[in-house]
Amino acid sequence: MDNMENPNSQSEMTPPAGIQPTGFQSSDLQPTNLQTGSLQPTDLQSNGLQMKAPEKTIVQDADSDDSVFHVFGNAKTVEFDQKLASQQINMNPTEKMVVEPLTGSSVVYDASNEQGVPENGFPAGYGPNAGIKRIEKPVKPKLKERIKRSFGQMTKKQRRLLVIIPSISLILIITLSLVAMVTGVFATDYSKTYSVAKSIKNELQKIRSNTNCEKVIEYNDNTFTSMEIYQGYVEECKKAGRGISEQLIEEMGDTAGVLKDVEVNRRFEAFKVALNESKNGNAEIEKTLNLYSIWHSWILTEASGDKSHNGFEWSEADIKDAAKILIESGNEKLAAYGNRWVELKTEAAKAAYKFYHTSESTEVVDYAEAKNDMDAKKAAFSDFQKEKRPDVVTEFPLQQVNLANISVKFEEMYSFIRETYQKNYNKRVGGCKELINAIICD
User: What's the start-to-end Cα distance of the chain, in Å?
Assistant: First the structure.
């Protein structure tokens, strides 16, 4: 009690039994300015906090002389200094966020004044929470505002570049346009299109004037037309049946006029459709022409054999060899005729040989009977030829290419290309008559 009564005593405090000394000295306590009447205020500042001693008098109890009281007994109140706190940097700003909507520029969204989700589960602005302010989506800034904001953020150098670069670009575009108008560098070149169209026209005229198909029909049964000449007619007729050359059509499709001009392309496609429709019967035309060629070869072989063998004096081997072309033709009707021809021709040849070449010195011959048999066999063969000999041209008609639709579509395309080329004439390439004040394309 002596130590407690004398707070300024320098003697050590004796700890109770069982408690280790802490090394705490009463001398470590700093004196407090306590006066009888009132407590003097002491200001403490730390990170915006101001601590002030209460102005009211603190009544000391009987233990006010205790050293612990000198440490913890001075009651102080803590007040928040808002002005000082607002000067500090907020290292974790959660009230304001940068929102980047999909439809506009980034905006700053201030959530400090927004209320949280109500506990009753109803959204803000609905039901019992109708009075609560709803969180609205950020409004997309108008274009004018965004442009104004962008201009406001630009430096002086950036503003100059914004004016200079578009101006230079515009000048370049105008210059190139003028050069293109004068020189025609970027204009569609119709010269190649017109040139290929003229080639197609010439080929189409050759097909129209091609008389080889008529000659194939006319000379099919003519024994005075050699096989070489007749085969030439057949090949030329096949070319006419194939129509326009595929190479010319592909070349036409690759020209600038067809690729760049929609109207030229549309007419070219219509012409190609007409060509494809006419080619559907090309296989039948060639098949028919091959039959014509086989039959003409047979006609020449038969005529040559009759001439060299005195009509019916053929050997059996020669007869079979001559009819082989018919039997192996692949045509059922020609093959049947060839087999029957071999049979009757062989019988007539044997009867003729018996009548003309049998000698009485070797065998007894009844010439009257032999002659009657020969005449009967020859008559049977002749009747067979008259009745069963096929008329190839009639039974297998040649369906020639119908050029009417092709010609109509080509004239539509060619006329348009010619007129277009006259308007966009390329003097370096030429191809048309150049008059003083006009261009005339054939």
Answer: 140
